[in-house]
Structure formats: C-alpha cells, structure tokens
Write a structure and sequence with these properties.
Length: 298
C-alpha cells in the first residue's frame, strides 16, 4: 500500500515538473529571454551600462597605477584649483592685448601649462608640510603622502621635477617677467603654513593665486602698469577670499552642513572667471569699433 502511494506521488511530482518545464519556455520567450539550449555571453555586472566619462577624475583613474598617486598629488583629479590659478592670468593677458585684437594664444597656452605645474607644485608642498596632520583628518587621510603611497624622498624629487618644468616655462618670457615670476616662489612655499599662524590663510592664498594678474600683463607689455595691474591683482585677492571662504564653510546662502552645496558653489567660480575673461575679450574687440566710428566722424 505504501509502495503504491509512493509511486503515485512520484508520478504526480513528475507531471507537475513537466508542466512547469513546458510553460517556462513560453514565459521566457515572451520576456525576451533566450530559449533553452541557447548560449549567451553575459557581461560582468559592473560593465553593463557603464557610462563613458571624460572627467578629470576618470582620466586619473584610468592612468597607469604607479602614476596615479603622483597625479592625485598634483590634484589633477580636481582641476578647479588650476582654473582658479589660471584665470587671473587670462584676465591680464586679455587686457594687455592691442585694441580690436584677441589675446595672445601662445601666451594663454604657455600660462595654462605653467598653471598646471605650479598648482601641482603648490599642492605637493602643502602635502609635504601637512603630512602628519593629514593622517588624522578623514577628508585628507587618503592623500598620497599621508597614505604612504609616496615617500618623502619621492615627493621631493617630484617637486623638483615640477619646479624645473615650470622654470622652463618661465624662461620663455621676458627678463622682467622672469624676475617677477621667480618672486612668487616665496609665496608658493610659505602660504601652506599660514593656516597654522593666522585665521586668514585665505589672504595668503589670494596673494599667491593672483600673481598671474601681474605676470600676464608683464609678459605682453614687458613691465607692469600699476594703474591696471594693481587693481586687477587686489580685486582678484578679494575674489579669492570669497571662494576660499566657501571652501572653508562660511558664507551667505551657503548650507555649511552640506559638503555638496559647498563644493558646488566653490566650483561655480570657474564659470564666473571665464565670464569675466569673455567680457574682457569682447570689450577689447569693441574698442576697435568705437575707434573706427570716431575716425569716420572726423
């Protein structure tokens, strides 16, 4: 009797399973899945739908692994600092252009290269000074020197390489600009220390980051015109006080409890600087039109 019940139970389970097998292909075909027996090449989960990114951080992440710590030490994955160092240079180069002419593109590219190198050198110096402090702060603990990815000796060698290349860029300028550019090295070395001795490190940063407002004009004209260069330089310093205060969490309309909001407002200064540069170009081109109109009236 038990054997008969077992046989019937077995037959019932087989029939139920066969029914599910017969129905399953129909359902899977309706859902667009492969039929039984078909071979499929399944991509790894992380590769499916991965967007192609050309951001600075993505470029650094795709670089050879031994090179990545040095690129991160230069902050190439966060280029906003390079832009903020470069933009005052573009303003003075634009103002120094002849009326009706575009800025000197060679000088713009030369100063762009110099901005990358000097910003990288400044970050290297900063991380060398602060390596013991960075280890104790969550936000900075993963910086290459603090994390041990780059040794102190390697950072010195790397700094020497950056400064040597920057010197090569500087030597492409006139003698006045070479001396003026060399004078900024003292600020580059000392400004990372200002946060230890003053509550106004932003001021030291502003004096350093806006040196290009003097250097760009002298590179075109051969010397500095105080009536143009000094107002531009000190207005740039005031601008730096604002955006670096945002970076340090203080300002009206700023949500100091939201790092994302702070970073968004800090990065937006790149757009402000580029709009100002565009305004300088358009204003310079307009000078020629006004001159032509005056000549025609005469």
């Amino acid at each position: 009797m038990l054997g008969l019940l077992g046989a019937r139970l077995s037959l019932g389970l087989r029939a139920s399973a066969w029914g599910r097998v017969r129905c399953f292909p129909v359902l899977t075909r309706a859902a667009g899945a492969p039929q039984v027996g078909e071979r499929t090449a399944s991509a790894p989960p992380e590769a499916r739908g991965r967007p192609l990114s050309l951001s600075a951080a993505a470029v650094v992440s795709s670089a050879p692994r031994p090179l990545q710590p040095y690129l991160r030490l230069m902050r190439l994955d966060k280029p906003i600092g390079t832009w903020l160092l470069y933009l005052p240079c573009t303003w003075s180069i634009g103002l120094a252009a002849e009326p009706g002419c575009f800025p000197d593109w060679y000088m713009l590219s030369l100063f762009g290269t110099g901005a990358i190198l000097m910003r990288g050198a400044g970050c290297t110096i900063n991380d060398m000074w602060d390596r013991d402090y960075d280890k104790k702060v969550t936000r900075t603990a993963n910086r290459p020197i603090a994390a041990g990815d780059i040794s102190t000796v390697q950072s010195f060698v790397f700094l020497g390489g950056q400064l040597s290349l920057a010197l090569g860029v500087l030597l492409c300028l006139n003698y006045y600009s070479i001396a003026l550019g060399a004078a900024s090295l003292l600020l580059v070395i000392t400004y990372p220390l200002m946060k230890r001795i003053t509550y106004w490190p932003q001021l030291a940063l502003g004096l350093t980051f806006n040196w290009g407002a003097l250097l760009g004009w002298s590179a075109i004209k051969g010397s500095c015109d105080p009536s143009v260069c000094l107002p531009l330089y000190f207005s740039g310093v005031m601008w730096t006080l604002i955006y670096d205060t945002i970076y340090a969490h203080q300002i009206y309309t700023l949500d100091i409890h939201s790092p994302a909001d702070c970073w968004h407002k800090f990065v937006s200064n790149r757009t402000v600087g580029m709009i100002l540069f565009l305004g300088i170009i358009l204003g310079n081109l307009w000078k020629e039109k006004k001159t032509d109109q005056i000549n025609k009236q005469r």
